[in-house]
Amino acid sequence: MKSVLKYTFLRLLILAAFLGIGYLVGLRGIVLL
Questions:
Q1: What is the pTM of this model?
Q2: What is the pLDDT of residue 17?
Q3: How much is the pLDDT for 33?
Q4: What's the sign of the alpha-carbon dihedral 21, 19, 16, 28?
Q5: How far is 21 from 32, CA to CA, in rounded Å?
Q6: Keyword Transmembrane, does the record have it (predicted)?
Q7: What pLDDT sits at residue 26?
């Protein structure tokens, strides 16, 4: 059960990282335009 929780946490962390990167790239695109 603990391993499942760890796996879910890792997935959320990766998802948050992707969202953060996408957000920064989007901001940079707006600034460049």
A1: 0.63
A2: 97
A3: 75
A4: positive
A5: 16
A6: yes
A7: 92
Query: Amino acid identity, residue 2?
Result: K
The separation between the first and the last C-alpha atoms of the chain, rounded to the nearest angstrom, is: 48
Q: Is the dihedral of CA 18, 23, 28, 30 positive or negative?
A: positive
Rg (CA), the chain: 14
Between the CA of residue 26 and those of 8, 11, 32, what are the distances in Å?
27, 22, 10
Q: Residue 31 is encoded by which pair of tokens? A: 């600034």
What is the spatial distance between Cα 16 and Cα 18, in angstroms, rounded to a whole number? 5
Write the pLDDT tens digit of every residue in 1-33.
689 999 999 999 999 999 999 999 999 988 887
